[in-house]
Design a protein that fits this description.
nine-stranded mixed β-sheet; single chain; Umud Fragment, subunit A; alpha+beta; Peptidase_S24_S26A/B/C; LexA/Signal_pep-like_sf; 434 Repressor (Amino-terminal Domain)
Length: 227
């Protein structure tokens, strides 16, 4: 198996998704990536698919350039995915910015460059690629307080898959919030529901991700001090 195909399997395992979901996110049939990896069809991803897949998997699209491969049995692909999923999870979370729970805050989401505001060694396993953001504002009290740390990981999920869930939500040309997601009054628009403040109605969403963990401010500061 060439490096590009192995990278796809590794990143899919890291993100906690699967070949079918990512194929559909590409706008292809559910078996598209399975065939690409196991049968070498197509021999190389087209430019559109390669660039879109790079965004989904959060990798450089040049790393997804592949070469034709010999047929690989589907059982071999399954075992490769399984081995990738068995890798030990990380316990290190990079804090990449702030998130609004009332206050309009623009996050500093530069984790792809290896930077960030802080680094916290948590005392529980997290999936590779999980990042943290610090809550600003009080509109989600009593669930989230100002200064708390929220962990999330961006994957192939779309907003429609997260309706009714509490999510990290990036508004198009706007701030990032922690809110419950609800459908808006028109297709493609969404309402961000607060716990104790007015809803933010009919906004266009750039991306949404379900939050993975929540640490009170004093707890994550304690963990940071223990590093």
């Amino acid at each position: 198996m060439d490096a590009a195909r192995q990278l796809i399997l590794d990143r899919i395992a890291d993100l906690g998704t699967d070949l079918k979901a990512v194929s559909l996110a590409l706008g292809r049939n559910h078996a598209y990536l399975q065939q690409f990896i196991s049968r070498g069809v197509p021999g190389e991803l087209g430019e559109r698919d390669r660039k879109k897949l790079a965004i989904i998997l959060k990798v450089n699209d040049e790393h997804l350039r592949s070469r034709p491969v010999e047929h690989i049995d589907s059982m071999d692909v399954a075992s490769l995915v399984d081995r990738s999923k068995k890798r030990k999870p990380d316990q290190e979370v990079r804090v990449v910015g702030y998130i609004g729970a009332g206050a309009e805050v623009h996050t500093v989401d530069d984790h792809e460059k290896g930077a960030g505001l802080d680094l916290v060694q948590v005392d529980f396993p997290v999936k590779h690629g999980t990042v943290g953001v610090i809550v600003r504002g009080d509109s989600m009290l009593p669930m989230f307080e100002d200064g708390d740390l929220i962990g999330y990981i961006r994957d192939a999920s779309g907003p429609e898959q997260l309706i009714g869930k509490i999510c990290v939500v990036k508004v198009v040309d706007g701030p990032t919030y922690i809110k419950r997601l609800k459908r808006g009054t028109e297709p493609g628009l969404y309402t961000l529901v607060s716990a104790n403040a007015r809803d933010i109605e009919d906004v266009d969403i750039e991306w949404a991700a379900r939050y993975r963990f929540h640490l009170p401010a004093d707890e994550w500061h304690r963990l940071r001090g223990a590093d």
